[in-house]
Structure formats: structure tokens, C-alpha cells
Amino acid sequence: MAEGAGTLLDPWGTSHVKDYDELMRQFGIEPLTNELAERLPRQHRLVRRGVIFGHRDLQRIIEAIERGEEYAVITGIKPSGEYHLGAKLTAEEFIYFQSLSPKAFAFFAIADLEAYADNRLPLEESYRIAISNLMDLLAMGLDPRRVYVYRQSVELPVLRLAFIFSRAVTYNTMEAIYGPRPFGLYFSALVQAGDILNPQLPHHGGPKPTIVPVGADQDPHIRLARDLASKFREEFGFVPPSATYHRLLRDLTAQEKMSKRNPMGILHLSEPLESARLKVMNAFTGGRATAEEQKRLGGEPEKCVVFVELLTAHFLEDDKLLKEWYWECKTGRILCGECKARAWEIIGRWLRDHQERRAKMRDLAERLLEEKTLSQK
Ligand code: TRP
Ligand code: SF4
């Protein structure tokens, strides 16, 4: 798609969204209005702060919560590396939707096939990283009693669904959604549609509302899954899957997408504290050229990674404190060095607590995945 003709979302590469309103109009994503958000039993930080900006059919999930009816929440991870801040967003949303109702059941797909197709990651390697990712999820509060964890490569019902779906998809459809790609990626996309509709198969209790919390760049997958849900509605009774969308955040150096090629930009959840501290202290800010200027003009928190990404999106829960912090910066009462040191106290504490909890989760993580693997044989 030509520049200017709209946004091209690339779920496997680097997407950058300039204008979220335009994106929503282009693809028919609904804005997440206050009216709808207020019907959620509890508003997550990411909802309150507009990091989650849009949705498709979220009302279907809210209705299920209100009526005490079952619904599924599904996410997947390409286990190509340790959890970092980008993955943390989806993980938190996943856990949040699981926690909103005792009738919610979570599905966690380890996308080892996609990691193989996209990154040539050997399946055994995926397994090791997946355990580590699962430890992070458990440490962040995933309820192990209401989650089904599986690997794409051995999940026969999902693979079978992908194959059935392929009947209704031509090369032209795939090219229109994803651009020209190797078939491995097209196949991964069909498997992901299988992941998303898996919770609605008979052995998981049949059709039900399903929510998929994703970053904006994953919308092509959501559109494909919704299209397939309607094409196979008669056969399977699928309810079209719902989705929520979060903004794509910048990395610590203000690059638009986390890239492994820029290690100073990425904060891993299992990162040693000293290196995490260094990264935070070197993060891109909205500070002025000199201290004198900053005292006079104030900082620019809306441009600042410390303020926008680290505090607002990730680490500062307290809304009142966040607002005060904004004004302290804006009026030049605080300078970046002191501000980052203060931010680090909060971030460092979060990481330390997280890592302590995480270290105790290995057995549980292995068991969650093992149980599944055995029953496959
Ligand atoms: N494509 C997703 C990623 O790159 C992983 C994924 C696989 C997924 N299956 C899924 C996400 C189902 C949401 C729902 O991380
Ligand atoms: Fe960012 Fe803090 Fe500097 Fe303001 S004072 S620009 S919030 S680092």
C-alpha cells in the first residue's frame, strides 16, 4: 500500500501508526468510549489512560460479564525471546480479562510454529523460552486454575481448524490482508485464526464470546479470524471474536518499535537490576537542552519516554501521583536526572518484586505445559 493511502499494519515487522483515528476509520475499529469502559467491573490502568484505544465487539464480553455467562480470553506469544515491556502490555490485558469474571477461561497459545516460520526458531528452543514466558505471566497474576496452555505445533484441534479454514481462503485474500509473504507466514496466520477460535470448539464447551487483547499491529489477524468465524458459522456456530487494541509504544530510546538490534531500547522483565537501571537512566526524555532552560520553560512530558511509556503506561498505578508528576515536569520544578532517579525507584521495586515471584513459578509453569504435552500422546 502506498504511503498516504492509509496505514499498512505488519504483524511480523515494524508498524508505526501515525494517526489512530485514521486507523480506526480505515479498518472499522471502534473507539473505546467512556460509556463502554464504565461498564467494565474494574477499569484497568491501560483503559483509564487510553493506552487501550479501541475495540471490536467488546460489548459482547461486557454483556457476558454482566449476565454471569462464560467467555474466553485468548492470547498467544511467539516465544522468540524473554518478556519485555511490549509483551507485558498484552500479558496484563490477558490477565485482566481473566480476572473480570469467575466465568472467564483463559487460553494461552505458544506460537512455536509462527516463531519457526518467522524467525526460524527451532521448536525445542521455543519450548524453553515458553516456560520462561509462562513464569512471567504467573508472576503477574495469571490464575493457573483457569488457563489452558498449549503449543501450536502439537495442538491437533488447532492445526485441523487451520486446515479447514484454508478451504475458504485464496491467495488473493491473504495477499490483500498481509501483502506478498512466504506461505509459512500465511499458514501461521491460519493457525492463529485456529488459536482464536479454538476456545469455541465442542471439547472446550462450544461457541462463546471470546476476547483477544492485542497491539494495533495484530489487527490483520483479528480481521482474518472474524472473517473465518462468519464463513464457518453454520458449520461451527462461531461467535465472532471480540478484540481490544492498545497503542504501539516506543522503546526506551524512542524508537517506534522494540527491536532486538537496539538492546538499550528494550527492558526485559527478567533483566538484572543494574542493567535495567542503566537503561532507565539513559531513556529518551522530554527535557530541554540546559537545566536553566528547563527551569524556565518546563519539560515536555508528552514527548518523554519516562513519562509516557514508563510511568503512564507501565509502572505508576496512582492517577493522582501521575498528574502531579506531569505538572512538576511541565512547570520546570523537576529536572530529568532527579526525575529518572525517582522513576527508577518505582520501576526497580516493581522489577525486584516481579523477579522474586517469578523465580518461584518454574515448577508450576512446567507442569501447566507438561500436563498438556502428555495428554497429546
Ligand atoms: N502473532 C502473535 C505474536 O506475534 C502470537 C499469537 C499466536 C497470538 N496466536 C495468537 C496472539 C492468538 C493472539 C491470539 O505475538
Ligand atoms: Fe521526562 Fe521527567 Fe524529564 Fe519531565 S522531568 S521530561 S517527565 S524525565
SSE topology:
Blueprint: H1 20-27, E1 30-31, H2 34-37, H3 45-48, E2 52-56, H4 58-67, E3 71-77, H5 85-99, E4 104-110, H6 112-119, H7 123-139, E5 147-151, H8 156-166, H9 171-178, H10 183-197, E6 210-215, H11 219-231, H12 233-236, E7 242-246, H13 273-281, H14 291-297, H15 305-315, H16 319-330, H17 336-359, H18 362-376
Parallel strand pairs: 3-4, 3-6, 4-5, 6-7
Antiparallel strand pairs: 1-2, 2-7
Helix pairs in contact: 6-10, 7-17, 7-18, 8-10, 10-11, 13-17, 15-17
The structure holds tryptophan and iron/sulfur cluster.
Structural class: alpha/beta
Question: What fold name goes in the CATH topology slot of the largest domain?
Answer: Rossmann fold
Strand content: 5-15%
Largest sheet: 7 strands, mixed
- Tell me the strand order in the biggest sheet: 1-2-7-6-3-4-5
Count of helices? 18
Instruction: Give the integer mean of the pLDDT values.
Output: 94
Distance between the termini: 45 Å
CATH superfamily of the largest domain: HUPs
Q: Can you tell me the CATH class of the largest domain? A: Alpha Beta
What low-confidence regions span 5 or more consecutive residues with pLDDT below 50? none
Number of domains: 2
Instruction: Write the CATH architecture name of the largest domain.
Output: 3-Layer(aba) Sandwich
What spatial form do the alpha-carbon principal axes imply? Answer: globular
Bound ligands, each once: tryptophan, iron/sulfur cluster
Helix amount:
40-55%
What is the CA-based Rg, rounded? Answer: 21 Å
How many strands appear in the DSSP assignment?
A: 7
Secondary-structure element order, N to C: HEHHEHEHEHHEHHHEHHEHHHHHH
